[in-house]
Amino acid sequence: MLSVLLARMPIKQAPCHEEAMNKTPEPRPLSAPTTYRFPRNVERLFDWAQIETRLRASRIFWLATSNPNGSPHVTPVWGVWVERAVYFDGLPTARWARNIAADARASMNLESGTQAVIMEGPVDDLETDEDLGAAIVDAWIAKYGDKVVPDPVGNGLFRLCPRKVKAWSESLHDGTAWTFQ
Prior knowledge:
alpha+beta, 181 residues, 10-stranded antiparallel β-sheet, 30% strand, Pnp Oxidase, Chain A, 10 strands, 5 helices
């Protein structure tokens, strides 16, 4: 019975577009009311490399999913940024994992600080190949140590492939958006 409960639930879609994941996205100013003082020209925008540095360094990712009744569900998860996606692990019986099984759309935000980074995109549950699995495990151990390490090749894990990313700092003068198509 326990093995049935812990079996990974299939996700309804395969979200990552490989061609989009291999291209550096073009920044554009965030669209918001003028009171937010977001930039209107590209000289003040974040460079994508700055955001990837934050994604690699972040220890906590806040995952937002939708409950069956449509209400939001937000939870912190551990994850690593590898090959333009966030890989994260957890029990498939967790509320957030069951939500993803029913609706793969999610939002993921970095832990708080002086800079906001918000990603939106679908999540899938997958098993990786050996090379990608090794890269994920290496990044995981470097960040969290070797106490709880996922097995992406044998047991699989979850992956959020961003379709949209938004970032800004406290000053708001650098509000930037990227779209992965």
